[in-house]
């Protein structure tokens, strides 16, 4: 199934619509030739034709977390028939200070004609996502495992943190934030490039119950000011500058201008914590306001490396992430703590067939939802080793990605079709001169991947042996909604294939009637899922109008699709 404008989908939901899954458990054979379908097995030949189905190799399937259409179907049907039981079992694998009310795992109303739209999961349960992503891994004996590798903009600049070292850095920043009056429910704006300090800042906020709002470091002063005015943060965290390729970007200057602009609009921020990024700009060259600006290196390092966890309700806010609204005012998408935690962890685990030995690299910036769910939270909740890259994929040349893959033995590589297409244009020699033997699973996010880019990614980058998880989801959904599970069923270039556990996609016509079989229409979701956003910050009416009024009783994705 492909969509018109979002990040792109797959086949329908209830069990009758999953009949196609059963037919995919083996190569098309006994029933006679299926017209227009060619079967290709992973690692055996190139994907060439528009209609190729790429079957996982028996070895890959045998070791996969979900190894057959039948296993998927059983898990999926349970997740739809008994969502409370399905998600509660997963929730039990995380640490909860207090258990949720078992009779109220999920409460929802998606129908605007029946009252206000509301969604809640595990309400009354008390937990903390930072504790589950960091401390829990140390307590299970993985304190010395690498949590994060960092590759700088310039080749040869690198760093790494174990889970124990990550916890110490998170605690120091949490303690600093508490010392300047940041507490539970307070907003903090983070305007940082892809330094280790960016996920550290996200986790430090989450640890003390503060609500982070990461703004992509490169957005204009106006965009940043709009977000400051909307969420009224206690402080802004930034760095003096960053180099993207050969080009320096003066981030602190952008923040200075944004703070002037927000003050004109009645919101004054009295503190700007600034990390000195020495490779991009010297301290003495940074513009400075002594009464407002503070160097990270001067203050944060003085604090204790231990910090108590603030236990929060599953429905307490975790972060705000602004998406550009069509009417000009950005929409502050609000995600909460408990359901989001389960959903990002579970989608990461199954969609990438995650193994504890994997080295995982997602090229997205934490300024986008992908960097929240699949750089910071999802991977760390699974105890994964994550690579964070400050630079750009074509600096110093177009082989940089594959140089990094070989340097760190990356096994799961998750990127966007735009990057794939841009590297395609630069030619295959930049790819083939590197080994890439460590790669095991590829992933695509951000928009539909056209079949020719899919095949280049599969044939050239993955040597025709790595399945591609072509994921459709949105900032609002928190995690993957429609995605292949590598090893479970064949892949079709350009299709996101089937819904993830607990997700019920439907295609409706303009009257809101569900349509069956092969068709095109509007993609909607019926019933909530744990990772769903709960509101637009300060504007619940816009939340209802944009997403729930077009088709009463459904979440409207804003995407068209075909099955």
Automatic annotation (TrEMBL):
Domain Acetyl-coenzyme A synthetase N-terminal: 72-133
Chemical reaction(s) catalysed: (E)-4-coumarate + ATP + H(+) = (E)-4-coumaroyl-AMP + diphosphate; (E)-4-coumarate + ATP + CoA = (E)-4-coumaroyl-CoA + AMP + diphosphate; (E)-4-coumaroyl-AMP + CoA = (E)-4-coumaroyl-CoA + AMP + H(+)
Record's signal peptide: none
Names of the cofactor(s): Mg(2+)
The keyword Transmembrane is annotated on this UniProt entry: no
Keywords carried by this UniProt record: ATP-binding, Ligase, Nucleotide-binding
Keyword ATP-binding: yes
Gene Ontology MF terms: 4-coumarate-CoA ligase activity; acetate-CoA ligase activity; ATP binding; trans-cinnamate-CoA ligase activity
GO terms for biological process, alphabetical: acetyl-CoA biosynthetic process; phenylpropanoid metabolic process
Pfam families: ACAS_N, AMP-binding
Residue ranges of every copy of the AMP-dependent synthetase/ligase domain listed in the record: 141-528
Family: Belongs to the ATP-dependent AMP-binding enzyme family.
Protein name as annotated: Acetyl-coenzyme A synthetase
Organism for this UniProt entry: Panicum virgatum (Blackwell switchgrass)
Lineage: Eukaryota, Viridiplantae, Streptophyta, Embryophyta, Tracheophyta
């Amino acid at each position: 199934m492909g969509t018109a404008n979002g990040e792109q989908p797959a086949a329908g939901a209830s069990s009758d619509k999953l009949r196609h899954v059963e037919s995919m458990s083996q190569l098309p054979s006994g029933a006679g030739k299926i017209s227009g379908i060619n079967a290709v097995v992973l690692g055996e030949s190139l994907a060439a034709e528009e209609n190729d189905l790429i079957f996982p190799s028996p070895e890959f399937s045998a070791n996969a977390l979900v190894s057959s259409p039948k296993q998927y179907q059983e898990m999926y049907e349970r997740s739809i028939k008994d969502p409370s039981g399905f998600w509660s079992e997963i929730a039990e694998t995380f640490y909860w200070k207090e258990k949720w009310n078992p009779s109220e795992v999920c409460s929802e109303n998606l129908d605007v004609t029946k009252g206000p739209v509301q969604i809640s999961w595990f309400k009354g349960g008390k937990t903390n996502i930072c504790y589950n992503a960091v401390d829990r891994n140390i307590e299970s004996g993985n304190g010395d495992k690498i949590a994060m590798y960092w590759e700088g903009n310039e080749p040869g600049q690198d760093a790494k943190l174990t889970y124990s070292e990550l916890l110490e850095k998170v605690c120091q920043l949490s303690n600093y934030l508490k010392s300047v009056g940041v507490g539970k429910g307070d907003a903090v704006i983070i305007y940082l490039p892809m330094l280790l300090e960016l996920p550290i800042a996200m986790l430090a906020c989450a640890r003390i119950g503060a609500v982070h709002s990461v703004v992509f470091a490169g957005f204009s002063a106006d965009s940043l000011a709009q977000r400051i005015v909307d969420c009224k943060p206690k402080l802004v965290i930034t760095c003096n500058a960053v180099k993207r390729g050969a080009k320096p970007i003066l981030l602190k200057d952008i923040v200075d201008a944004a703070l002037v602009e927000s003050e004109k609009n009645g919101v004054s921020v009295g503190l700007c914590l600034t990390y000195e990024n020495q490779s991009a700009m010297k301290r003495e060259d940074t513009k400075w306001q002594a009464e407002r600006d503070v160097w990270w290196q001067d203050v944060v390092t003085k604090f204790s490396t231990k910090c108590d966890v603030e236990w929060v309700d599953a429905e307490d806010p975790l972060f705000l992430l602004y998406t550009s609204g069509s009417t000009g005012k950005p929409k502050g998408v609000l995600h909460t703590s408990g359901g989001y935690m389960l959903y990002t962890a579970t989608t990461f685990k199954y969609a990438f067939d995650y193994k504890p030995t994997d080295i995982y690299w997602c090229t997205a910036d934490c300024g986008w939802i992908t960097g929240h769910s699949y750089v910071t939270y999802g991977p760390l909740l699974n105890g994964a080793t994550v690579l964070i890259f400050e630079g750009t994929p074509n600096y110093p040349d177009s082989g940089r990605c594959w140089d990094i893959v070989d340097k760190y033995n990356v096994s799961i590589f998750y990127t966007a079709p735009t990057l794939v297409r841009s590297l395609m244009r630069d030619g295959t020699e930049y790819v083939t001169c590197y080994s890439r033997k460590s790669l095991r699973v590829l992933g695509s996010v951000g928009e539909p991947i056209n079949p020719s880019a899919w095949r280049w990614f599969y044939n050239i980058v993955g040597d025709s042996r790595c399945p591609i998880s072509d994921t459709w989801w949105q900032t609002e959904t928190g995690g993957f909604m429609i995605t292949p599970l590598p090893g479970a069923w064949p892949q079709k270039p350009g299709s996101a294939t089937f819904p993830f556990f607990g997700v019920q996609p439907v295609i409706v016509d303009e009257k809101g009637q569900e349509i069956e079989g092969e068709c095109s229409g509007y993609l909607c979701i019926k019933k909530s899922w744990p990772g769903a956003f709960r509101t637009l910050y300060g504007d619940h009416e816009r939340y209802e109008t944009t997403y729930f009024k077009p088709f009463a009783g459904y979440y409207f994705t804003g995407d068209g699709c075909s099955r």
